[in-house]
Every structure is written in C-alpha cells, then in structure tokens.
Write a structure and sequence with these properties.
- The protein is an all-alpha fold.
- A two-stranded antiparallel sheet has the order 1-2.
- Helix 4 runs antiparallel to helix 5, helix 5 packs antiparallel against helix 6 and helix 6 runs parallel beside helix 8.
Length: 222
C-alpha cells in the first residue's frame, strides 16, 4: 500500500554522480515491485561479504580488493533502498528503522572483519566499530529531540568506507611490492587506518553535538 502521509524529514546528502548510478536500478526495482526493505537487507549481505574478505585477507591478501568493492556495494544498497522507497511511494517511519538498523549492523560486521584479519590489532578494529556506532547514534539525536538529523563531520559513513579503502589497498600494495612490510612506527597500515577512523569519528561527534545544541537553542527562542 502506498503511503501518502509519511514524508521523510531528513535525508543523507548524496553526490549526484553516485546517485545517477542507481537511476536505472530504481526504475527496475519499481517496475518489478521490489520492496525497499529487501534492498536494505541486501546491504547487510554485502557488508557480510566484505567482512569475510577482510577476515581472510591475512591469509589471502588479494581479498582486500573484493573486500573494498563489497564496502562500496553496501553503500550503494544503502542509497538505493531510500531512492526506491521514495520512487514507489513506500517510504514510511518503519522504513526509517529498517534503513538505519542494517547500517549499524554493517559497520560492526566490516570493522570486526578488519579486527580479525591478522593485519590489524583487534583492539583498533573494535574501537573503530564502536566509534562508528556512536557517531551514527549521535547523528540521530537531533531527529530524536525534534530538530534536524545530523550528517555533518569528516567521518560520516561514506568517508569511513573511503578511509578503509585507502588503508586496505595501501596494505595490499605493501604486501605485494614491499616484501610484506606493512608496519610503520610499530603499527600496521590498517592500525593507522583505524586510528584515523577513530579520530575522525571523535571530530564528527563533536561537530554533530555542537550543531544539534545550536539548533535546540534556536528552536527554544522561536
């Protein structure tokens, strides 16, 4: 049943070029009556595939290539579900939950896979997963208290995946062409990658909290 009452109050800003890659898929999904929830679940499947690739990359470094590809496929599905929901008129509050919950599961799966790759200190991987969760949680505070949801900051979901992409492929290049030397100052490249994610998440949390508090002050004055 088409929902004519619900209107999304906040949508993640997405680059036009990335959005254009899904236009044909949106038309196909709408014509085949594929429910956006199904696409949301597919994002978890893609994240699981990425996690398995990272987990096994210590023994098979080439898996860092498809691991990164699955991370981007996860992002693509995350975008596609919302676009299909709007195009088909199936956007709903229930869909808001099913759009966000797979994202949080996906973040955990991917960084836990990195943590157990053998190419990264497990504590660094788990802290990156924890900070990714906290960053998203803080971003939802604004919507929860009646102002805008926050997607600001330097380490939002897409940039976490880009950061991991860079770290993973630098690691692979060093394994193949630097005699397997992937440590710098006592830490592996993926350790440093997780440190960057953690530091970026801290900045992002601070920015989001600041913007939410400012929005609340403006709301109180009106």
């Amino acid at each position: 049943m088409i929902n004519t009452e619900y209107k999304p109050t906040s949508r993640r800003p997405i680059a036009d070029n990335f959005r254009k890659t899904a236009q044909t898929a949106v038309r196909i999904c709408v014509s085949l009556n594929i429910h956006p929830d199904t696409i949301s679940y597919l994002s978890i499947v893609a994240a699981t595939a990425a996690a398995v690739c990272f987990w096994q990359s210590g023994a098979h470094p080439w898996l860092l290539i498809p691991g990164v590809a699955f991370c981007y496929l996860r992002l693509w599905f995350n975008m596609l579900d919302g676009m299909v929901a709007l195009a088909s008129g199936k956007a709903s509050w229930r869909g808001e939950v099913l759009n966000d919950l797979p994202d949080r599961i996906s973040d955990i799966l991917i960084f836990v896979g990195v943590a157990h790759s053998g190419l990264c200190n497990p504590f660094a991987g788990y802290w990156a997963a924890l900070m990714a969760m906290l960053t998203a949680y803080v971003g939802m505070f604004g919507q929860a208290v009646g102002v805008q949801r926050e997607f600001s900051g330097i380490m939002s979901k897409p940039w976490r995946m880009v950061t991991l992409h860079i770290g993973a492929w630098i690691t692979l290049a060093l394994i193949w062409w630097n005699h397997g030397q992937i440590r710098f100052a006592g830490f592996t490249v993926l350790d440093w990658t997780c440190f960057v994610v953690i530091a970026g998440c801290l900045q992002t949390i601070a920015v989001r909290l600041q913007r939410i508090m400012a929005a609340l002050e403006r709301k109180a004055k009106t």
